[in-house]
Write a structure and sequence with these properties.
Number of strands of chain B: 23
Order of helices and strands of chain A: HHHEHEHEHEEHEEHEHHEEHHHHHHH
Helix content of chain A: 55-70%
Strand content of chain A: 5-15%
Number of domains of chain A: 2
Largest sheet of chain A: 7 strands, mixed
Distance between the termini of chain A: 48 Å
Distance between the termini of chain B: 107 Å
CATH class of the largest domain in chain A: Alpha Beta
Largest interface: A-B, 38 and 32 residues
Largest sheet of chain B: 4 strands, antiparallel
Shape of chain B: elongated
CATH architecture of the largest domain in chain A: Alpha-Beta Complex
Oligomer: heterodimer
Structural class of chain B: alpha+beta
Structural class of chain A: alpha/beta
Helix content of chain B: 10-25%
Radius of gyration of chain A: 23 Å
Number of strands of chain A: 10
Chain lengths: 493, 311
């Protein structure tokens, strides 16, 4: 009972803080307009400093990826002197799938096939859902197409309506991993030498990905206390996706760039890899929560009493941009996808409860982690709304109620500086994003590149709506106990 | 590099760089935020008294842009639009100048932590008229935004002219037959697609645009005093507030008039909302012994007036 109450309180905190912050600005403006203007000025300066800091991190991360991406990782693996021989490492690639068109999986497997990692040491698991009609037939067809290429291709079908589970990627991946464990046990494979990569169905790896992953697995002495996170580059269908979706996904990629540089805060997201032994030890991914990709990190963090980290890999993976049938549908899909990502706020509840039961993690580390989670989610839910809606509202109303106020006059000026700084950041993004655009197909006009640059100018408008609202929506739902189910982002190419 | 282990966790280059950026921007925030807030509030450190004093600012917008702005006769080069900050509270002599335009001078009273806004349009000098080579003996002119941007409609002894906003490029659009006294007393102008209608206190004239030979004609004359003229019912009627009556003239057949209302007081006022075509009348009510506001649909008044005329 007590735990339930604490859980409810933890669920309310992020939403209450986000709404509280925004209401604070508005109420302060209603009762003390000039004080509100001063607070907004401090808030904007804080964000300006933070944006410049993040731009520097982004450039550093970009430099790191560019320096190491093309490195001969496989050669390096062969040269490593480690307690595990490179030849003994088995790479398992798990693709939980639900209603994705076969071509999406075929493309992903083709990317595995093109990898320079020895295929006889790669095991593929295609994890279907019993909820999908003919799932086995679809996956079996794919298995036949790729038979003999990898060590083996396993197919698992996750039964529906298992008690205690919600229909989610985590539940499917967990079921497949349990089946995988049985398979590996039968073959007497040492689980501590197995790396599992849990990929979205549309994840196409760079040819160096598995070599890079193996290298870090072998060279890190605490290899079982590390998750390995590649940079997700959303470009598989970049030539077919509308500008709105391209901008949003590129924005997500740049955010990952920033996160990569802050390794004490960095956690797993979307497609990621880890030691299979650790996965078994922590009892796999959560089956009753939506954000399985990040929660697995926290499960491990609690298991290892805070001595667990995420390693930002130098080699990226390539994924699909979420698109719909038309621009409105794309907008809805993007919104729902971002809301699902923002539902990662459930990590705060999970971690909070976990910390209460774990006395081996230091108090300050606990507080720091909780603060980081809150900071991320509250800022995500509020900053675009404060900058795009509340500040202009205060400026507009301010000119009516206190026309001759110098502080309001200066607020307008500082607001302009913020938007100019955003433009500066945007120019850096434009320059950086160019390297992640794949070669132009022959049927795509050269004019695409002009549109590719022009697309960035819709960012301020899009980020105001798709930046904060999905996050605020997710936090509000959690605050009122209106829990979100797992929304599958349809893959369309 | 070749034999060196690659490990981001132990690669100090990145962590040191990140740390430097973090502390640099944190320091900038900690230092800049209070300074910017102080400056935003108008505080300034007075070197002599070594105290913070409250100042204000003057924001100057002027048309045309890049006009020279001078405060209290100082020689500092400032051009509009501009914000002159850190001014102590008091009264300032502000002048705005631009060659070819009349200078503008104003006294600006400035309060602490306040901004005084000055927004002016400089009038072009008349010399530019002489440059046209035309002897435009102007009686009266009006600004118009209806015909392809800003224009000036000038009533002269030779006819009605359209001029650009710098009083150049004159184009005669209609002949005119106004006495100097009538022309100089013009007090309003309405433009439609084909006509311009203009009036003084006693008369209303209409001129057909584009017919350079056609002279303007007097369409209404009164012994009372014309208070207001406006278009109603989608520009079909010209509504005239003449002394104690409100009259409508059919634009389709000029000189056809309908009496819409009679007022009790000469001080009655009329406001017409074009969007809802509603007429608001503020008139004296003897029963109440005070003024009161009434509203009615103009279309209803027109209907009753038409019916009366038929009868």
């Amino acid at each position: 009972m007590k735990k339930k109450k604490i859980k409810r309180i933890l669920e309310i905190i992020p939403g209450a803080l986000s709404w509280g912050l925004m209401l604070f600005f508005i109420l302060l403006f209603v009762f003390k307009p000039l004080a509100a203007a001063v607070v907004i000025i401090v808030y904007l300066i804080y964000w300006l400093a933070r944006l410049f800091y993040m731009t520097c991190l982004m450039l550093l991360a970009n430099y790191r990826v560019r320096s190491f991406r093309k490195m001969p990782w496989l050669e390096r693996c062969a040269q490593i002197k480690s307690d595990i021989a490179f030849e003994d490492v088995l790479q398992v690639v798990l693709f939980p799938t639900y209603k994705e068109p076969p071509q999406v999986l075929i493309d992903s497997l083709n990317a595995l096939k093109a990898s320079n990692y020895p295929k006889e040491r790669m095991l593929v698991v295609l994890a279907g859902e019993a909820r999908e009609v003919n799932s086995f037939d679809k996956l079996d067809g794919i298995r036949k197409d790729f038979s003999g290429i990898f060590k083996d291709i396993l197919i698992t079908i996750h039964p529906k309506d298992i008690e205690g589970e919600i229909p989610s990627k985590g539940a499917n991946a967990t079921y497949a991993s349990r089946e995988l464990k049985k398979y590996l046990d039968k073959q007497n494979v040492d689980l501590s030498k197995v790396i599992i990569s849990c990929f979205d169905a549309d994840t196409c790896t760079d040819k160096n990905y598995f070599a890079c992953l193996a290298y870090h697995f072998l060279t890190n002495t605490k290899r079982h206390q590390i998750s390995y996170q590649p940079l997700p580059v959303y470009n598989n269908n970049i030539y077919k996706a509308p500008a709105l979706a391209r901008v949003m996904e590129m924005g997500s990629m740049f955010w990952q760039f920033v996160e990569m540089m802050r390794c004490e805060k960095f956690i797993t997201f979307s497609s990621h890899s880890m030691s299979f032994k650790t996965l078994v030890d922590v009892d796999y991914w959560p089956v009753d929560l939506v954000s399985d990709d990040s929660l697995i990190f926290w499960k491990c963090f609690l298991k290892f009493n805070g001595d667990y980290h995420t390693y930002p890999l130098e080699v990226p993976v390539f994924m699909d941009i979420a698109v719909g049938k038309n621009i409105v549908n794309t907008f809805v899909i993007q919104y729902k996808q971002k809301r699902r990502w923002a539902w990662g706020v459930e990590n705060f509840v999970f971690v909070g409860l976990g910390f209460l039961e774990n006395n081996r993690i230091g108090f300050f580390l606990k507080m720091r982690k909780l603060y980081n989670l809150l900071d991320n989610h509250v800022n995500w839910a509020t900053w675009a709304i404060v900058v795009s809606f509340i500040t202009p509202f205060i400026l507009y109303r301010g000119t009516i109620i206190a026309k001759d106020s110098l502080v309001l006059f200066n607020l307008a000026y500082i607001n302009k500086v913020i938007f100019n700084s955003l433009t500066f950041m945007m120019l850096i993004c434009i320059m950086m994003s160019r390297q992640f655009v794949p070669a132009r197909p022959k049927n795509v006009s050269r004019f695409f590149y002009v549109r590719f640059i022009a697309q960035w100018f819709i960012l301020p408008f899009v980020s105001a709506i798709l930046g904060s609202l999905p996050s605020l929506d997710a936090q509000t739902r959690m605050m009122f106990g209106n829990y979100l189910g797992f929304n599958v982002t349809k893959k369309r190419r | 590099m070749r034999n060196k282990k690659i490990n981001f966790f132990t690669d100090h280059r990145y962590h040191i760089s990140r740390g430097l950026f973090f502390w640099a921007f944190s320091f900038l925030f900690v230092v800049c935020a209070p300074v910017i807030v102080y400056l935003s509030l108008g505080y300034k450190l007075d070197a002599r008294s070594k105290k913070f004093i409250k100042t204000g600012a003057i924001s100057v917008k002027a048309f045309p842009e890049n006009s020279q702005v001078t405060v209290n006769g100082d020689k500092k080069l400032r051009s509009s639009p501009c914000v002159i900050r850190e001014l102590l509270p008091g009264t300032y002599d502000l002048s705005i100048e631009k060659p070819g335009f009349y200078p503008y001078a104003v006294k600006v009273a400035l309060k602490p932590s306040a901004v005084a806004e000055v927004d002016v349009v400089l009038a072009p000098k008349i010399e530019s008229f002489d440059n046209t080579g035309l002897n435009l003996n102007i009686y009266k002119f009006f600004m118009s935004k209806r015909f392809f941007g800003e224009k000036i409609i000038a009533f002269t002894a030779n006819g009605v002219y359209f001029l650009d906003k710098y009083f150049k490029d004159p184009q005669k659009v209609s002949a005119i037959d106004l006495s100097r006294q009538d022309g100089c007393s013009l007090c309003g102008l309405i433009e439609t697609d084909k006509n311009i209608i203009f009036w003084n206190k006693k008369k209303i004239w209409a001129a057909v645009l584009g017919d350079k030979g056609a002279k303007c004609v007097s369409v209404y004359e009164t012994a009372e005093e014309i208070s207001d003229v406006f278009l109603g019912l989608k520009d079909r009627y010209l509504i005239i507030h003449d002394g104690l009556k409100l009259i409508a003239m059919d634009m389709g057949s000029p000189l056809t008039f309908y009496q819409l209302l009679g007022f009790k007081s000469k001080d009655a006022t009329v406001f017409y909302d074009t969007a809802s075509e509603t007429l608001y009348v503020n008139d004296f009510v003897p029963q109440l012994n005070s003024f009161s506001i009434f509203k009615t649909q103009l279309v209803k008044l027109m209907f009753f007036s038409h019916e009366e005329k038929k009868d």
